[in-house]
Amino acid sequence: MLQHVAPETxxxxxxxxxxxxxxxxxxxxxxxxxxxxxxxxxxxxxxMGGPMGVYERDRFPFLHDELxxxxxxxxxxxxxxxxxxxxxxxAHALGAGVRPGLKKEIGxxxxxxxxxxASDPVLSAAPRTFTAxxxxxxxxxxxxxxxxxxxxxxxxxxxxxxGPNAWGLLFHMEVTQAMVAAMVEAFPEELTEAGLAGHxxxxxxxxxxxxxxxxxxxxFTRFVERLA
Length: 228
Fold this sequence. Notes:
228 residues; alpha/beta; two-stranded parallel sheet
């Protein structure tokens, strides 16, 4: 697992992997830990979120190494899950455009899955509509050959699958109450820019997380089952 900032841990994804008997190796790029050159003995790859952009690779050189690892994972068709920044890196690796959106999408908002999600190996575990945490400024185009799986009212493409084993989720369904609190603490300027109050996001988290946890458990369990 590749982690880009302290608050955005693997969360519920990590819990699902450990429950299935897997050992997590978390590479914390923000602490200077080197990105592996190969998957080595890993069964798959999870790439978490972060405030940096795909187009800021000169400022954050570790993104070059992460893209190479993502490309290798795609070639091998190993299971790959990208969340938020991770989904943007996946889209970029597949040749799709990634750019700043018209405005940041932050807060607890509805998500609608496309019809294709009903037969998706992973997202079919989720209901057609639900509320998730959104915290992103960048958006991406659908990679050529990928399947559009979901949208929100603000963002036309929120989820996609490429091939049999690679998923990109722009939204957050892996978060815990502690993660939400840590994100609020870490990025107050983004909340101010969006006209939001941190205490509101934390209060809303208490209302939405029980359902999101149940949905996420089903989705992440199905992803983890694909790890060989």
